[in-house]
């Protein structure tokens, strides 16, 4: 049986990681290289010449004389953590396919739980914002899913207060191999909600395959062709070959969440889905995950704790 080249990737070992990003100077140089790949550019006046202050890690523009930190205006802004700790957090979050909890992250990094929680939530927010700009195209398997278990005395099944509904979509090739996924929390499975989701995340002309849930007919409003397969619930729907990859992704997702996290609050659910989605969509090159995540973190606006604690819909 042929080996899966994606699954047996070496990734980047801890030894190799420490060789590249083991000191503050190495991390600073990496940030400088990725923030200004074509050379320094003053964020205030646009000038391309600066001097490095000897007593602080600041760049001073030669024209307007404004001083700029390498982390100013980025997701790292105002953080008191050393750059090495940030890089170690990125390494731990990206290299484990099941993720890492804030408690475990705190222990591994030697920082407080609150600091680890903020660090993880900020990095997951970067993943949310990065993948929002991409659309799925081609052949797409679509399904409804929920986070959270049933509670005693509460309504079971769809509409249960203890569950967070989300849409799971898998883009596949003509040969039936998965390429990218999209996991999105929704307010409910209604026509208006699915129509809005489809227009935002599906490319016109895509072929969407779903089960018999009526609201999925709304994908046609985004210019997609819809192939509906009514297969019933339970084991029959899981074994349907047309939904093999979306069911596989959902199984892996829920296994990862159950084994890593004690609980996920609904207001933060989209971030945890985005973390799994981000790693899955970039699984073909594990070594590139670290520079890619740092690169987009440098282009994500700051997010103070008061905003981190808001739900992603602003409430």
Give a verbal description of the structure.
- The protein is an alpha/beta fold and 315 residues long.
- It has 2 domains: 16-132 and 293-308, no CATH class; 139-148 and 160-262, Nucleotidyltransferase, domain 5, CATH 3.30.420.
- Helices cover 38% and strands 14% of the residues.
- The chain contains 11 helices and 8 strands.
- The strands form 2 sheets. It has a 5-stranded mixed β-sheet. A 3-stranded antiparallel β-sheet has the order 1-2-3, with no helix packed on it.
- A hairpin with a 5-residue loop joins strand 5 and strand 6.
- The model has no long low-confidence stretch (mean pLDDT 89).
- InterPro entries: Tnp_ISXO2-like, Transposase_Zn_ribbon.
- This is IS1595 family transposase.
